[in-house]
């Protein structure tokens, strides 16, 4: 009787041990598949606080990638050192503490990327929106609440630049309406649209000019002027990004795209927070999205948000989900090796009599080991088949758990920094997990098969060495 047939008979003859090994293989294979699937899962999340409006897409920086770039820069500069790398500066202050500063090039949506996407067939027009930029009002007064604590306020107003003001998110959402003049356009330069409250307080009208300079260098910085082309009324108060009067609705001044960088001391170095893309034909919305996602830009830098606020990004861009998947694979591999080695060691110890008889009949140790390997592989094949059937469901459950853990960590980090003040008005998006899309590919099946086969081979070999290194006389003596 050949080794393969003998192994098959042994599997059938010892059903309890075979079923135990089968269950172990199924569990190991399923979790290994879950780890592989988690690395390439599509995570659907929603930005519940800043949804795009209408048949549009919104491009903004990926918060996860932002942290990745920060970590890379600080590592390049070195711990306990001062320096600058790719828009990140580490500076030592007088009290001995180190601070991390970022410039506009690090924080901005790159205009060239927006222009590239705008060329996609089906995109009718696009808009670039700057961050709410704090500046000092030179020749006019801002709106102030006498009961408001201004101790932590910048004492200025905020400018919001638009390539096309009609495509601003608050304008498109109907939060403000024009009551005089017009909105800014992409042809404009050094113009602005102000609130009716600001116009009333200062006796301003369309055609007048406002002057601004740096809020932290009021005395020495250059003054820039912007001509008023329109006056708006807030149908719904614009939500301020922080307390104080600088960011209040009435002190928000809309300008052309490039004006905010000038009085803020960053001329030629703009800071765009969003890019909005308008779809020409709503019926082709999904087709346009597919074309956009194929555009050759650094997508790791961004999140693309649809008109419902939904974000679809690879799991590797969803905080540390990739690392969690890799950790799962490492843990499963290590635990599987230990468990399988112990199982086969126990298996062989309880078959000492069988081994002794085979050796007494003249069978070689290599042939006996081959039989045990065949038994393991036969059970392994059946285990793989069963695991392939349940892997999609388990993979989705595991990926969902990892995504929720990743989001929980992000929320904890957000809570830890929610009291920090950012002069550029940046607030991290409030992302809500929607669902996880898992695809079990043939490549994953091949990798899983190789991994399980390798684990079985190594485990049988390790257990076999501990038994087979004994001399025939020692094994036969143990039979008694």
Automatic annotation (TrEMBL):
Keyword vocabulary terms for this entry: Cell membrane, Membrane, Transmembrane, Transmembrane helix
Topology of the protein relative to the lipid bilayer: Multi-pass membrane protein
Localization per record: Cell membrane
Stretches that traverse the bilayer: 20-38, 327-347, 368-390, 450-468
Predominant location category: membrane
Domain MacB-like periplasmic core per the UniProt entry, residue ranges: 21-294
GO molecular function: transmembrane transporter activity
Pfam family, one: FtsX
Span of domain ABC3 transporter permease C-terminal: 327-407
A single cellular component GO annotation: plasma membrane
Protein known as: Efflux ABC transporter, permease protein
Lineage, highest ranks first: Bacteria, Bacillati, Bacillota, Clostridia, Eubacteriales
């Amino acid at each position: 009787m050949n080794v393969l047939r003998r192994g098959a008979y042994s599997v059938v003859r010892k059903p309890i041990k075979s079923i135990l090994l089968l269950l172990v293989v199924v569990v190991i294979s399923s979790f290994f598949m879950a780890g592989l699937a988690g690395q390439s899962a599509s995570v659907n999340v929603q930005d519940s606080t800043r949804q795009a409006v209408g048949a549009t897409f919104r491009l903004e920086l990926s918060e996860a990638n932002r942290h990745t770039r920060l970590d890379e820069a600080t590592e390049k500069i070195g711990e306990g050192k001062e320096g600058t790398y790719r828009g990140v500066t580490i500076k030592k202050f007088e009290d001995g503490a180190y601070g991390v500063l970022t410039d506009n090039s690090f924080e901005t949506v790159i205009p060239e990327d927006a222009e590239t996407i705008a060329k996609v067939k089906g995109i009718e027009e696009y808009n670039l929106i700057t961050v709410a930029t704090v500046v000092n009002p030179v020749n006019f007064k801002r709106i102030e609440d006498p009961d408001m604590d201004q101790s932590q306020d910048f004492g200025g107003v905020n400018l919001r630049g638009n390539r096309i003001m009609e495509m601003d998110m608050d304008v498109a959402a109907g939060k403000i309406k024009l009551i005089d003049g017009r909105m800014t356009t992409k042809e404009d330069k050094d113009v602005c649209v102000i609130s009716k409250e600001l116009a009333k307080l200062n006796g301003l009208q369309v055609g007048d000019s406002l002057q601004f300079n740096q809020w932290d260098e009021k005395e020495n910085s250059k003054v820039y002027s912007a001509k008023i082309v329109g006056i708006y009324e807030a149908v719904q108060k614009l939500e301020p990004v922080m307390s104080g009067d600088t960011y209040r609705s009435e002190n928000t001044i809309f300008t052309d795209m490039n004006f905010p960088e000038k009085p803020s001391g960053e001329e030629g170095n703009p800071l765009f927070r969003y890019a909005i893309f308008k779809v020409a034909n709503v019926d082709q919305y999904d087709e346009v999205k597919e074309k956009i996602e194929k555009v050759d830009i650094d997508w790791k830098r961004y999140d693309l948000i649809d008109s419902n606020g939904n974000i679809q990004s690879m799991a590797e861009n969803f905080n540390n989900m990739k690392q969690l998947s890799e950790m799962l694979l490492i843990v499963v591999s290590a635990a599987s090796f230990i468990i399988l080695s112990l199982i086969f060691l126990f298996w062989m110890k309880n078959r000492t009599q069988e081994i002794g008889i085979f050796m007494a009949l003249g069978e070689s140790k290599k042939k006996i080991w081959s039989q045990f390997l065949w038994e393991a592989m036969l059970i392994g094949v059946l285990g793989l088949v069963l695991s392939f059937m349940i892997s999609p469901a388990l993979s989705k459950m595991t990926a969902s758990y990892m995504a929720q853990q990743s989001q929980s960590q992000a929320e904890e980090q957000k809570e830890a920094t929610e009291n920090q003040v950012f002069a550029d008005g940046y607030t991290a998006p409030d992302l809500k997990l929607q669902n996880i899309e898992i695809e079990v590919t043939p490549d994953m099946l091949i990798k899983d098969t190789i991994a399980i086969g390798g684990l079985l081979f190594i485990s049988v070999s390790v257990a076999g060495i501990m038994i087979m290194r004994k001399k025939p006389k020692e094994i036969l003596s143990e039979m008694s």
